[in-house]
Amino acid sequence: xxxxxxxxxxxxxxxxxxxxxxxxxxxxxxxxxxxxxxxxxxxxxxxxxxxxxxxxxxxxxxxxxxxxxxxxxxxxxxxxxxxxxxxxxxxxxxxxxxxxxxxxxxxxxxxxxxxxxxxxxxxxxxxxxxxxxxxxxxxxxxxxxxxxxxxxxxxxxxxxxxxxxxxxxxxxxxxxxxxxxxxxxxxxxxxxxxxxxxxxxxxxxxxxxxxxxxxxxxxxxxxx
Length: 224
Prior knowledge:
Number of helices: 7
Shape: globular
Number of strands: 2
Strand content: under 5%
Distance between the termini: 15 Å
Mean pLDDT: 80
Helix content: over 70%
Largest sheet: 2 strands, antiparallel
């Protein structure tokens, strides 16, 4: 089996499960409760990224290499979804800190602010990779994004490795912060609610960390 075949299978499975997630969200009022909206917005970016990867790695079936279908427009979509995923995860963590510090604030009061920041960051980085002419087929991961280089790839470091590292570290720090503040006397009256929020937060940060570490390990073994 080729790398493209593996990618196609992985993306198809991921898209299938994402559709199940969207269906469950649409039918469950409990899942729609805050911060479920943040989670679904993050999931939409995962879904979009999987669709882009699936299209790119299934086009080779007509006999042409996937690289021949790589254009700056495809690279822009790839970058948009990658950065959007990081931004929405960061928004989820920031929202958790905000809720802990001010438990009486309306939960969704900052949704528009999160949305605006996510759009700005995703758009800015997507435009930047085109403006600096660094788009191209990335053979090391079989993806249309920023092209490979023979030396240290600053673009990759700044656009995915550094953001992922920051979001993971920040997420784990937020979990610790939440655990400490859960014991605060000012939160005793809402301890059950806070414990449930902490469980969700820990699960969220843990799954995000496991997702990216697993993805990195899988890509390492696929391409080495």
